[in-house]
Amino acid sequence: MAILDITDDGFHLDGQPFRIISGGLHYFRVHPEQWADRLHKARLMGLNTVDTYVPWNLHAPRPDVFDLDGILDLPRFLELAAAEGLHVLFRPGPYICGEWEGGGLPSWLLADPTMELRTTHPGFLAAVDDYLDRLLPVVLPYLASRGGPVLAVQLENEYGAFGEDAAYLTRLAQSLVKRGVDVPLFTSDQPGDLARGGLDGVLRTVNFGSGVARGLEALRAQQPTGPLMCTEFWNGWFDRWGGKHVVRDPDDAARALDELLAAGASVNFYMFHGGTNFGFSNGANDKGNYRATVTSYDYDAPLDEAGDATPKYRAFRSVIARYAAEPAEPVPARAPKFALPGIELPEQAPLFDNLAGLGSPVSGDRPLTMEELGQNFGFVLYTTRLDTPGPTRLAVGAVRDRAQVFLDGQPVGVLERENHEHTLTFTVPAGGAELRVLVENQGRVNYGAALHDRKGLIGPVTLNGRAVDDWSSLPLPLEDLGPIAFARTDSAAPGPVLHRGTFQVDEPADSHLHLDGWTKGNAWINGFNLGRYWSRGPQRSLYVPAPVLRPGANEIVLLELHGSTGRTVDLREVPDLGPIEE
Asked: Which residues form the Beta-galactosidase galactose-binding domain (predicted)?
Protein backbone atom coordinates (compact mmCIF):
# COMPACT_ATOMS: atom_id res chain seq x y z
CA MET A 1 0.00 0.00 0.00
CA ALA A 2 1.41 3.39 -1.08
CA ILE A 3 -0.40 6.34 0.50
CA LEU A 4 0.00 9.84 -0.91
CA ASP A 5 -0.05 12.57 1.72
CA ILE A 6 -0.34 16.28 1.02
CA THR A 7 1.71 18.37 3.45
CA ASP A 8 2.70 22.02 3.65
CA ASP A 9 6.06 21.21 2.08
CA GLY A 10 4.88 18.89 -0.69
CA PHE A 11 3.84 15.35 -1.52
CA HIS A 12 4.88 12.44 0.68
CA LEU A 13 4.50 8.79 -0.28
CA ASP A 14 4.52 6.41 2.66
CA GLY A 15 6.07 9.16 4.74
CA GLN A 16 8.89 9.99 2.32
CA PRO A 17 9.15 13.12 0.10
CA PHE A 18 7.78 12.27 -3.35
CA ARG A 19 7.67 14.02 -6.71
CA ILE A 20 4.98 12.96 -9.18
CA ILE A 21 6.48 12.57 -12.65
CA SER A 22 3.50 11.55 -14.72
CA GLY A 23 2.27 11.43 -18.29
CA GLY A 24 -1.14 11.43 -19.95
CA LEU A 25 -2.13 8.09 -21.48
CA HIS A 26 -5.82 7.67 -22.29
CA TYR A 27 -6.72 3.99 -22.46
CA PHE A 28 -9.66 4.73 -24.78
CA ARG A 29 -7.36 6.27 -27.39
CA VAL A 30 -5.06 3.24 -27.58
CA HIS A 31 -5.85 -0.28 -28.74
CA PRO A 32 -6.04 -2.44 -25.57
CA GLU A 33 -3.48 -4.90 -26.91
CA GLN A 34 -1.00 -2.00 -26.95
CA TRP A 35 -1.61 -0.71 -23.41
CA ALA A 36 1.22 -2.73 -21.86
CA ASP A 37 3.69 -1.50 -24.48
CA ARG A 38 2.80 2.16 -23.91
CA LEU A 39 2.93 1.78 -20.12
CA HIS A 40 6.34 0.12 -20.31
CA LYS A 41 7.65 2.98 -22.45
CA ALA A 42 6.25 5.47 -19.94
CA ARG A 43 8.40 3.94 -17.20
CA LEU A 44 11.44 3.90 -19.49
CA MET A 45 11.13 7.65 -20.04
CA GLY A 46 11.46 8.05 -16.28
CA LEU A 47 7.81 8.38 -15.29
CA ASN A 48 6.57 7.00 -12.00
CA THR A 49 2.90 7.73 -12.73
CA VAL A 50 0.44 7.88 -15.62
CA ASP A 51 -2.81 9.79 -15.76
CA THR A 52 -6.02 9.01 -17.58
CA TYR A 53 -9.41 10.55 -18.13
CA VAL A 54 -12.58 8.44 -18.12
CA PRO A 55 -14.97 9.02 -21.08
CA TRP A 56 -18.43 8.82 -19.53
CA ASN A 57 -20.03 8.97 -22.99
CA LEU A 58 -18.26 5.82 -24.21
CA HIS A 59 -18.83 3.83 -21.05
CA ALA A 60 -22.51 4.84 -20.98
CA PRO A 61 -23.78 5.13 -24.58
CA ARG A 62 -27.29 4.88 -23.09
CA PRO A 63 -28.49 5.68 -19.57
CA ASP A 64 -29.09 2.01 -18.81
CA VAL A 65 -25.70 0.74 -20.05
CA PHE A 66 -22.21 0.80 -18.55
CA ASP A 67 -19.63 -0.82 -20.83
CA LEU A 68 -16.26 -2.08 -19.58
CA ASP A 69 -15.31 -4.28 -22.53
CA GLY A 70 -12.43 -4.07 -24.99
CA ILE A 71 -10.98 -0.59 -25.27
CA LEU A 72 -13.11 0.36 -22.22
CA ASP A 73 -11.70 -2.34 -19.90
CA LEU A 74 -10.58 0.18 -17.31
CA PRO A 75 -9.78 -2.41 -14.60
CA ARG A 76 -7.37 -4.17 -16.96
CA PHE A 77 -5.65 -0.87 -17.77
CA LEU A 78 -5.21 -0.10 -14.07
CA GLU A 79 -3.88 -3.60 -13.44
CA LEU A 80 -1.35 -3.24 -16.25
CA ALA A 81 -0.20 0.11 -14.86
CA ALA A 82 0.32 -1.46 -11.45
CA ALA A 83 2.17 -4.41 -12.99
CA GLU A 84 4.55 -1.95 -14.66
CA GLY A 85 5.19 -0.31 -11.28
CA LEU A 86 3.37 2.89 -12.17
CA HIS A 87 1.03 4.94 -10.03
CA VAL A 88 -2.11 6.49 -11.56
CA LEU A 89 -3.74 9.90 -11.43
CA PHE A 90 -7.41 9.21 -12.07
CA ARG A 91 -9.54 11.86 -13.80
CA PRO A 92 -13.17 10.67 -14.02
CA GLY A 93 -14.77 14.00 -14.87
CA PRO A 94 -17.72 13.87 -15.22
CA TYR A 95 -16.45 16.44 -17.74
CA ILE A 96 -13.00 15.79 -19.21
CA CYS A 97 -12.56 18.12 -22.24
CA GLY A 98 -9.59 16.29 -23.79
CA GLU A 99 -10.60 17.33 -27.34
CA TRP A 100 -13.00 14.43 -26.91
CA GLU A 101 -16.57 14.28 -28.24
CA GLY A 102 -18.71 16.49 -25.99
CA GLY A 103 -15.93 16.67 -23.41
CA GLY A 104 -16.89 13.13 -22.40
CA LEU A 105 -20.46 14.06 -21.45
CA PRO A 106 -23.06 11.64 -22.88
CA SER A 107 -25.12 13.03 -25.74
CA TRP A 108 -28.30 11.64 -24.20
CA LEU A 109 -28.10 14.34 -21.54
CA LEU A 110 -29.04 16.81 -24.27
CA ALA A 111 -32.29 14.99 -25.05
CA ASP A 112 -33.63 17.05 -22.12
CA PRO A 113 -34.24 20.53 -23.56
CA THR A 114 -33.83 22.09 -20.09
CA MET A 115 -30.47 20.43 -19.39
CA GLU A 116 -27.74 22.63 -17.90
CA LEU A 117 -24.43 20.80 -18.03
CA ARG A 118 -21.79 21.15 -15.32
CA THR A 119 -24.22 22.77 -12.87
CA THR A 120 -26.46 21.77 -9.98
CA HIS A 121 -29.32 21.22 -12.42
CA PRO A 122 -31.24 18.27 -10.88
CA GLY A 123 -31.24 16.24 -14.09
CA PHE A 124 -27.50 16.64 -14.52
CA LEU A 125 -26.71 15.76 -10.90
CA ALA A 126 -28.97 12.70 -11.02
CA ALA A 127 -27.14 11.47 -14.13
CA VAL A 128 -23.75 12.12 -12.51
CA ASP A 129 -24.80 10.20 -9.41
CA ASP A 130 -25.81 7.23 -11.54
CA TYR A 131 -22.48 7.42 -13.41
CA LEU A 132 -20.50 7.41 -10.17
CA ASP A 133 -22.65 4.60 -8.79
CA ARG A 134 -21.61 2.49 -11.78
CA LEU A 135 -17.98 3.61 -12.08
CA LEU A 136 -16.68 3.81 -8.54
CA PRO A 137 -17.38 0.23 -7.39
CA VAL A 138 -15.16 -0.83 -10.29
CA VAL A 139 -12.40 1.63 -9.37
CA LEU A 140 -12.36 1.53 -5.56
CA PRO A 141 -10.28 -1.69 -5.38
CA TYR A 142 -7.55 0.15 -7.32
CA LEU A 143 -7.23 3.10 -4.93
CA ALA A 144 -3.87 3.36 -3.17
CA SER A 145 -5.69 3.14 0.15
CA ARG A 146 -6.64 -0.41 -0.82
CA GLY A 147 -3.30 -1.41 -2.24
CA GLY A 148 -3.92 -0.22 -5.80
CA PRO A 149 -2.11 2.23 -8.10
CA VAL A 150 -4.52 5.21 -7.95
CA LEU A 151 -2.82 7.90 -5.85
CA ALA A 152 -5.32 10.73 -6.35
CA VAL A 153 -8.60 11.56 -8.07
CA GLN A 154 -9.37 14.75 -9.97
CA LEU A 155 -12.49 16.74 -9.20
CA GLU A 156 -14.13 17.85 -12.49
CA ASN A 157 -11.70 19.36 -15.03
CA GLU A 158 -10.68 22.97 -15.66
CA TYR A 159 -13.97 24.10 -14.18
CA GLY A 160 -12.69 27.66 -13.77
CA ALA A 161 -12.78 28.08 -17.55
CA PHE A 162 -16.51 27.31 -17.53
CA GLY A 163 -18.06 28.53 -14.28
CA GLU A 164 -17.50 29.48 -10.65
CA ASP A 165 -20.18 27.55 -8.77
CA ALA A 166 -18.55 26.31 -5.59
CA ALA A 167 -21.79 24.53 -4.68
CA TYR A 168 -21.43 22.36 -7.78
CA LEU A 169 -17.83 21.42 -6.97
CA THR A 170 -18.73 20.81 -3.33
CA ARG A 171 -21.54 18.48 -4.39
CA LEU A 172 -19.17 16.53 -6.66
CA ALA A 173 -16.57 16.21 -3.93
CA GLN A 174 -19.19 14.93 -1.51
CA SER A 175 -20.43 12.46 -4.13
CA LEU A 176 -16.93 11.00 -4.53
CA VAL A 177 -16.16 10.80 -0.82
CA LYS A 178 -19.44 9.25 0.23
CA ARG A 179 -18.98 6.54 -2.40
CA GLY A 180 -15.65 5.54 -0.90
CA VAL A 181 -12.97 7.71 -2.52
CA ASP A 182 -10.48 8.19 0.33
CA VAL A 183 -7.37 9.25 -1.60
CA PRO A 184 -6.59 12.96 -2.14
CA LEU A 185 -8.78 14.97 -4.49
CA PHE A 186 -7.35 17.69 -6.73
CA THR A 187 -8.50 20.29 -9.24
CA SER A 188 -6.58 21.58 -12.26
CA ASP A 189 -7.01 24.93 -14.01
CA GLN A 190 -5.14 27.39 -16.15
CA PRO A 191 -3.41 30.18 -14.18
CA GLY A 192 -6.16 32.76 -14.70
CA ASP A 193 -8.90 30.30 -13.72
CA LEU A 194 -7.45 28.92 -10.48
CA ALA A 195 -9.66 30.99 -8.17
CA ARG A 196 -12.90 30.05 -9.94
CA GLY A 197 -12.05 26.38 -10.48
CA GLY A 198 -10.71 25.52 -7.04
CA LEU A 199 -12.41 24.39 -3.86
CA ASP A 200 -11.26 24.98 -0.31
CA GLY A 201 -9.83 21.83 1.19
CA VAL A 202 -9.00 20.33 -2.22
CA LEU A 203 -5.50 20.51 -3.70
CA ARG A 204 -5.22 23.02 -6.53
CA THR A 205 -2.90 22.30 -9.46
CA VAL A 206 -2.14 24.41 -12.52
CA ASN A 207 -2.03 23.79 -16.30
CA PHE A 208 0.36 25.48 -18.74
CA GLY A 209 2.89 24.78 -21.46
CA SER A 210 5.26 27.69 -20.98
CA GLY A 211 5.69 30.65 -18.63
CA VAL A 212 6.63 28.28 -15.82
CA ALA A 213 7.44 30.95 -13.25
CA ARG A 214 4.20 32.85 -13.92
CA GLY A 215 2.15 29.67 -13.72
CA LEU A 216 3.65 28.58 -10.42
CA GLU A 217 3.31 32.09 -9.00
CA ALA A 218 -0.38 32.08 -9.89
CA LEU A 219 -0.76 28.75 -8.11
CA ARG A 220 1.06 30.05 -5.01
CA ALA A 221 -1.18 33.10 -4.96
CA GLN A 222 -4.18 30.81 -4.52
CA GLN A 223 -2.43 28.11 -2.48
CA PRO A 224 0.41 29.53 -0.37
CA THR A 225 1.60 26.14 0.91
CA GLY A 226 1.51 22.57 -0.25
CA PRO A 227 2.75 20.80 -3.35
CA LEU A 228 3.43 22.63 -6.59
CA MET A 229 2.11 20.66 -9.51
CA CYS A 230 1.46 21.24 -13.20
CA THR A 231 -1.21 18.68 -14.04
CA GLU A 232 -1.19 19.51 -17.73
CA PHE A 233 2.25 20.44 -19.00
CA TRP A 234 1.35 21.05 -22.64
CA ASN A 235 4.34 19.67 -24.50
CA GLY A 236 2.50 19.63 -27.83
CA TRP A 237 -0.94 20.45 -29.22
CA PHE A 238 -3.83 19.03 -31.21
CA ASP A 239 -4.83 19.65 -34.84
CA ARG A 240 -8.08 20.76 -36.46
CA TRP A 241 -9.48 20.09 -39.90
CA GLY A 242 -8.50 22.90 -42.25
CA GLY A 243 -5.47 23.89 -40.17
CA LYS A 244 -1.86 22.75 -40.10
CA HIS A 245 -0.06 20.14 -38.02
CA VAL A 246 1.06 21.76 -34.77
CA VAL A 247 4.43 20.82 -33.28
CA ARG A 248 6.64 22.11 -30.48
CA ASP A 249 10.41 22.13 -30.59
CA PRO A 250 11.75 19.38 -28.28
CA ASP A 251 14.53 21.56 -26.89
CA ASP A 252 12.09 24.36 -26.06
CA ALA A 253 9.76 21.95 -24.25
CA ALA A 254 12.70 20.34 -22.44
CA ARG A 255 13.92 23.73 -21.17
CA ALA A 256 10.47 24.46 -19.75
CA LEU A 257 10.38 21.02 -18.15
CA ASP A 258 13.79 21.59 -16.58
CA GLU A 259 12.61 24.92 -15.14
CA LEU A 260 9.50 23.26 -13.75
CA LEU A 261 11.38 20.42 -12.07
CA ALA A 262 14.10 22.76 -10.80
CA ALA A 263 11.36 24.67 -8.96
CA GLY A 264 10.56 21.51 -7.04
CA ALA A 265 7.25 20.97 -8.80
CA SER A 266 5.58 17.74 -9.82
CA VAL A 267 4.48 17.31 -13.42
CA ASN A 268 2.04 15.48 -15.63
CA PHE A 269 2.82 15.63 -19.34
CA TYR A 270 -0.16 16.38 -21.53
CA MET A 271 0.34 14.18 -23.42
CA PHE A 272 2.93 11.44 -22.91
CA HIS A 273 1.18 9.44 -25.64
CA GLY A 274 -1.79 10.99 -27.41
CA GLY A 275 -3.14 8.06 -29.41
CA THR A 276 -6.10 8.29 -31.76
CA ASN A 277 -9.68 9.57 -31.86
CA PHE A 278 -10.96 6.33 -33.35
CA GLY A 279 -14.39 6.20 -34.97
CA PHE A 280 -16.47 9.32 -34.42
CA SER A 281 -14.93 10.24 -31.06
CA ASN A 282 -13.12 13.50 -31.83
CA GLY A 283 -14.36 16.69 -30.23
CA ALA A 284 -14.46 20.26 -31.49
CA ASN A 285 -13.93 23.81 -30.34
CA ASP A 286 -16.29 26.71 -30.96
CA LYS A 287 -15.29 30.21 -29.92
CA GLY A 288 -17.47 31.86 -32.54
CA ASN A 289 -16.23 29.50 -35.26
CA TYR A 290 -16.69 25.74 -35.14
CA ARG A 291 -13.41 23.83 -35.51
CA ALA A 292 -13.51 20.02 -35.41
CA THR A 293 -10.46 18.12 -34.14
CA VAL A 294 -8.84 15.62 -36.51
CA THR A 295 -8.72 11.86 -36.03
CA SER A 296 -5.07 11.73 -35.00
CA TYR A 297 -4.29 12.71 -31.42
CA ASP A 298 -0.55 12.40 -32.02
CA TYR A 299 -0.22 15.69 -30.09
CA ASP A 300 3.48 15.88 -31.01
CA ALA A 301 3.94 13.90 -27.78
CA PRO A 302 7.04 12.02 -26.56
CA LEU A 303 5.49 8.84 -27.97
CA ASP A 304 4.01 9.38 -31.42
CA GLU A 305 0.63 8.05 -32.51
CA ALA A 306 2.15 4.65 -33.33
CA GLY A 307 3.83 4.46 -29.92
CA ASP A 308 7.39 5.13 -31.10
CA ALA A 309 9.82 7.30 -29.13
CA THR A 310 10.40 10.73 -30.64
CA PRO A 311 13.25 13.22 -30.11
CA LYS A 312 11.02 14.77 -27.44
CA TYR A 313 10.99 11.43 -25.58
CA ARG A 314 14.78 11.41 -25.51
CA ALA A 315 14.99 15.08 -24.49
CA PHE A 316 12.52 14.60 -21.63
CA ARG A 317 14.22 11.42 -20.46
CA SER A 318 17.50 13.33 -20.20
CA VAL A 319 15.92 16.14 -18.19
CA ILE A 320 14.09 13.76 -15.84
CA ALA A 321 17.35 11.91 -15.19
CA ARG A 322 18.71 15.06 -13.49
CA TYR A 323 15.98 14.81 -10.84
CA ALA A 324 15.25 11.07 -10.59
CA ALA A 325 16.98 7.77 -11.22
CA GLU A 326 17.37 7.07 -14.93
CA PRO A 327 15.89 3.73 -16.03
CA ALA A 328 18.49 1.08 -16.69
CA GLU A 329 16.96 0.04 -20.00
CA PRO A 330 17.68 2.03 -23.19
CA VAL A 331 15.21 4.09 -25.18
CA PRO A 332 12.81 1.64 -26.88
CA ALA A 333 13.45 0.88 -30.54
CA ARG A 334 10.92 1.72 -33.22
CA ALA A 335 8.28 -1.00 -33.61
CA PRO A 336 7.99 -2.92 -36.92
CA LYS A 337 5.74 -1.44 -39.60
CA PHE A 338 3.72 -2.98 -42.43
CA ALA A 339 3.39 -1.52 -45.94
CA LEU A 340 1.34 -2.53 -48.96
CA PRO A 341 0.70 -0.15 -51.86
CA GLY A 342 -2.16 -0.20 -54.32
CA ILE A 343 -4.87 -2.03 -52.39
CA GLU A 344 -7.88 -2.24 -54.69
CA LEU A 345 -11.45 -1.59 -53.52
CA PRO A 346 -13.47 -3.15 -56.35
CA GLU A 347 -16.81 -3.52 -54.53
CA GLN A 348 -19.32 -0.73 -53.98
CA ALA A 349 -22.55 -0.11 -52.12
CA PRO A 350 -24.39 3.22 -52.55
CA LEU A 351 -25.43 4.37 -49.10
CA PHE A 352 -28.94 5.37 -50.18
CA ASP A 353 -29.55 1.89 -51.60
CA ASN A 354 -28.74 0.30 -48.24
CA LEU A 355 -30.74 2.35 -45.77
CA ALA A 356 -33.21 -0.35 -44.74
CA GLY A 357 -30.72 -2.28 -42.62
CA LEU A 358 -28.94 0.69 -41.07
CA GLY A 359 -31.63 2.42 -39.02
CA SER A 360 -35.32 3.04 -38.46
CA PRO A 361 -36.84 6.32 -39.73
CA VAL A 362 -38.94 8.50 -37.46
CA SER A 363 -41.68 10.73 -38.90
CA GLY A 364 -42.36 14.21 -37.59
CA ASP A 365 -43.39 17.73 -38.41
CA ARG A 366 -39.75 18.88 -38.27
CA PRO A 367 -36.28 17.33 -38.49
CA LEU A 368 -35.39 15.65 -35.20
CA THR A 369 -31.99 16.10 -33.60
CA MET A 370 -29.65 13.19 -32.99
CA GLU A 371 -30.33 13.51 -29.28
CA GLU A 372 -34.09 13.27 -29.82
CA LEU A 373 -33.44 10.15 -31.91
CA GLY A 374 -31.35 8.58 -29.13
CA GLN A 375 -28.27 8.69 -31.36
CA ASN A 376 -24.72 9.45 -30.25
CA PHE A 377 -22.51 9.57 -33.33
CA GLY A 378 -22.56 9.29 -37.10
CA PHE A 379 -25.12 10.74 -39.52
CA VAL A 380 -28.81 11.58 -39.80
CA LEU A 381 -30.66 11.45 -43.12
CA TYR A 382 -33.60 13.85 -43.38
CA THR A 383 -36.12 13.31 -46.18
CA THR A 384 -39.17 15.22 -47.40
CA ARG A 385 -41.18 15.50 -50.62
CA LEU A 386 -41.21 18.69 -52.68
CA ASP A 387 -44.31 19.03 -54.87
CA THR A 388 -43.95 22.61 -56.16
CA PRO A 389 -41.69 22.87 -59.23
CA GLY A 390 -39.39 25.79 -59.93
CA PRO A 391 -36.55 27.65 -58.21
CA THR A 392 -36.47 26.77 -54.51
CA ARG A 393 -34.51 28.28 -51.66
CA LEU A 394 -33.70 26.00 -48.74
CA ALA A 395 -32.91 27.80 -45.47
CA VAL A 396 -31.87 26.14 -42.20
CA GLY A 397 -31.63 27.83 -38.82
CA ALA A 398 -28.44 25.96 -37.94
CA VAL A 399 -26.51 23.04 -39.45
CA ARG A 400 -24.64 20.83 -37.02
CA ASP A 401 -22.34 20.14 -38.51
CA ARG A 402 -22.18 19.42 -42.24
CA ALA A 403 -25.11 18.76 -44.56
CA GLN A 404 -25.01 17.26 -48.06
CA VAL A 405 -28.19 18.11 -49.96
CA PHE A 406 -29.64 15.83 -52.67
CA LEU A 407 -32.57 16.23 -55.05
CA ASP A 408 -33.83 12.91 -56.37
CA GLY A 409 -30.48 11.44 -55.35
CA GLN A 410 -28.36 14.04 -57.16
CA PRO A 411 -26.09 16.34 -55.09
CA VAL A 412 -27.09 20.00 -55.21
CA GLY A 413 -24.84 21.48 -52.53
CA VAL A 414 -23.23 21.33 -49.10
CA LEU A 415 -24.02 23.42 -46.03
CA GLU A 416 -21.35 23.71 -43.34
CA ARG A 417 -21.73 24.93 -39.78
CA GLU A 418 -18.55 26.96 -39.81
CA ASN A 419 -19.69 29.02 -42.80
CA HIS A 420 -22.71 30.40 -40.88
CA GLU A 421 -24.70 30.98 -44.10
CA HIS A 422 -27.11 28.02 -44.23
CA THR A 423 -29.07 28.60 -47.44
CA LEU A 424 -29.07 26.81 -50.78
CA THR A 425 -30.97 27.36 -54.04
CA PHE A 426 -31.93 24.67 -56.56
CA THR A 427 -34.67 23.96 -59.09
CA VAL A 428 -37.40 21.40 -58.41
CA PRO A 429 -38.42 19.65 -61.66
CA ALA A 430 -41.97 19.29 -62.93
CA GLY A 431 -43.74 16.57 -61.01
CA GLY A 432 -41.81 17.31 -57.81
CA ALA A 433 -38.79 15.63 -56.25
CA GLU A 434 -37.49 14.00 -53.10
CA LEU A 435 -35.24 16.17 -50.95
CA ARG A 436 -32.62 14.39 -48.86
CA VAL A 437 -30.27 16.09 -46.41
CA LEU A 438 -27.45 13.94 -45.01
CA VAL A 439 -26.05 15.58 -41.87
CA GLU A 440 -22.77 14.54 -40.29
CA ASN A 441 -22.00 15.03 -36.61
CA GLN A 442 -18.35 16.10 -36.95
CA GLY A 443 -17.80 16.12 -33.19
CA ARG A 444 -19.63 17.77 -30.31
CA VAL A 445 -17.97 20.83 -28.81
CA ASN A 446 -15.74 19.84 -25.90
CA TYR A 447 -14.83 23.19 -24.33
CA GLY A 448 -16.46 26.45 -23.32
CA ALA A 449 -19.91 27.95 -23.51
CA ALA A 450 -20.95 26.00 -26.65
CA LEU A 451 -20.87 22.67 -24.79
CA HIS A 452 -24.64 22.17 -25.23
CA ASP A 453 -24.06 21.03 -28.81
CA ARG A 454 -27.09 19.23 -30.22
CA LYS A 455 -26.65 17.71 -33.68
CA GLY A 456 -28.64 17.68 -36.91
CA LEU A 457 -30.76 20.36 -38.56
CA ILE A 458 -31.50 22.85 -35.78
CA GLY A 459 -34.19 25.49 -35.77
CA PRO A 460 -36.59 26.33 -38.57
CA VAL A 461 -36.18 24.65 -41.95
CA THR A 462 -37.98 26.51 -44.72
CA LEU A 463 -38.43 26.26 -48.48
CA ASN A 464 -39.08 29.60 -50.17
CA GLY A 465 -39.79 31.01 -46.73
CA ARG A 466 -42.43 28.44 -45.75
CA ALA A 467 -41.91 25.77 -43.12
CA VAL A 468 -41.97 22.13 -44.18
CA ASP A 469 -44.01 20.00 -41.77
CA ASP A 470 -43.52 16.46 -43.10
CA TRP A 471 -40.09 14.95 -42.43
CA SER A 472 -38.50 11.56 -42.04
CA SER A 473 -35.44 11.47 -39.74
CA LEU A 474 -33.27 8.36 -40.16
CA PRO A 475 -30.42 7.79 -37.68
CA LEU A 476 -27.31 6.32 -39.28
CA PRO A 477 -24.83 5.56 -36.46
CA LEU A 478 -22.95 3.12 -38.75
CA GLU A 479 -22.02 0.89 -35.81
CA ASP A 480 -22.67 -2.27 -37.84
CA LEU A 481 -21.94 -2.46 -41.56
CA GLY A 482 -23.15 -6.06 -41.78
CA PRO A 483 -26.40 -5.20 -43.61
CA ILE A 484 -24.53 -3.44 -46.43
CA ALA A 485 -24.87 -5.25 -49.79
CA PHE A 486 -21.67 -4.81 -51.82
CA ALA A 487 -21.26 -5.62 -55.52
CA ARG A 488 -18.29 -5.51 -57.88
CA THR A 489 -18.41 -2.63 -60.35
CA ASP A 490 -16.14 -1.36 -63.09
CA SER A 491 -16.37 2.36 -62.30
CA ALA A 492 -16.52 4.49 -59.18
CA ALA A 493 -19.95 5.90 -58.38
CA PRO A 494 -20.34 9.37 -56.82
CA GLY A 495 -20.84 9.46 -53.06
CA PRO A 496 -22.09 8.73 -50.61
CA VAL A 497 -20.86 5.22 -51.44
CA LEU A 498 -19.21 2.47 -49.42
CA HIS A 499 -16.18 0.85 -51.06
CA ARG A 500 -14.75 -2.52 -50.04
CA GLY A 501 -11.63 -4.52 -50.76
CA THR A 502 -9.35 -7.14 -49.23
CA PHE A 503 -5.62 -7.45 -48.75
CA GLN A 504 -3.25 -10.10 -47.44
CA VAL A 505 -1.02 -9.84 -44.37
CA ASP A 506 1.71 -12.31 -43.44
CA GLU A 507 2.64 -10.85 -40.06
CA PRO A 508 0.54 -8.00 -38.57
CA ALA A 509 2.37 -4.79 -37.70
CA ASP A 510 1.46 -1.14 -37.32
CA SER A 511 0.73 0.76 -40.51
CA HIS A 512 -0.81 3.95 -41.85
CA LEU A 513 -3.67 4.05 -44.34
CA HIS A 514 -3.02 6.71 -46.98
CA LEU A 515 -6.03 7.98 -48.88
CA ASP A 516 -4.59 9.93 -51.79
CA GLY A 517 -7.37 10.91 -54.21
CA TRP A 518 -10.22 10.29 -51.76
CA THR A 519 -12.28 13.23 -50.48
CA LYS A 520 -14.06 12.69 -47.16
CA GLY A 521 -15.43 9.87 -45.07
CA ASN A 522 -14.56 7.11 -42.62
CA ALA A 523 -12.44 3.97 -42.90
CA TRP A 524 -12.86 0.54 -41.31
CA ILE A 525 -10.43 -2.39 -41.26
CA ASN A 526 -11.89 -5.72 -40.16
CA GLY A 527 -14.84 -3.84 -38.73
CA PHE A 528 -12.68 -1.49 -36.61
CA ASN A 529 -13.50 2.17 -37.29
CA LEU A 530 -10.14 3.87 -37.76
CA GLY A 531 -11.73 7.32 -37.90
CA ARG A 532 -12.43 10.14 -40.31
CA TYR A 533 -10.39 11.22 -43.30
CA TRP A 534 -10.75 14.49 -45.23
CA SER A 535 -8.74 15.92 -48.11
CA ARG A 536 -9.10 19.32 -46.41
CA GLY A 537 -6.24 18.13 -44.19
CA PRO A 538 -3.89 18.58 -42.52
CA GLN A 539 -4.05 14.86 -41.73
CA ARG A 540 -3.88 12.68 -44.85
CA SER A 541 -3.43 9.22 -43.38
CA LEU A 542 -5.00 7.12 -40.62
CA TYR A 543 -3.10 5.08 -38.06
CA VAL A 544 -3.71 1.32 -38.27
CA PRO A 545 -2.82 -0.48 -35.01
CA ALA A 546 -1.19 -3.87 -35.52
CA PRO A 547 -3.85 -5.70 -33.44
CA VAL A 548 -6.52 -4.59 -35.92
CA LEU A 549 -4.81 -6.66 -38.62
CA ARG A 550 -4.75 -10.47 -38.78
CA PRO A 551 -2.67 -13.01 -40.68
CA GLY A 552 -4.27 -13.80 -44.04
CA ALA A 553 -7.17 -11.89 -45.57
CA ASN A 554 -8.17 -8.49 -44.18
CA GLU A 555 -11.16 -6.37 -45.15
CA ILE A 556 -11.12 -2.62 -45.71
CA VAL A 557 -14.25 -0.47 -46.12
CA LEU A 558 -14.42 3.24 -46.91
CA LEU A 559 -17.51 5.40 -46.69
CA GLU A 560 -16.71 8.04 -49.30
CA LEU A 561 -19.15 10.93 -49.03
CA HIS A 562 -18.24 12.61 -52.31
CA GLY A 563 -15.97 10.87 -54.79
CA SER A 564 -12.44 9.75 -55.55
CA THR A 565 -9.98 9.97 -58.41
CA GLY A 566 -9.16 6.28 -58.11
CA ARG A 567 -10.16 3.06 -56.36
CA THR A 568 -7.03 2.15 -54.46
CA VAL A 569 -5.47 2.99 -51.10
CA ASP A 570 -1.98 2.44 -49.69
CA LEU A 571 -0.66 1.11 -46.41
CA ARG A 572 2.65 2.81 -45.65
CA GLU A 573 5.16 2.70 -42.83
CA VAL A 574 5.01 6.42 -42.06
CA PRO A 575 2.07 8.76 -41.46
CA ASP A 576 1.20 12.01 -43.21
CA LEU A 577 -0.08 14.44 -40.59
CA GLY A 578 0.18 17.38 -42.95
CA PRO A 579 2.24 20.55 -43.32
CA ILE A 580 3.68 21.87 -40.08
CA GLU A 581 2.43 25.10 -38.57
CA GLU A 582 5.34 27.50 -38.41
From this structure: 496-554
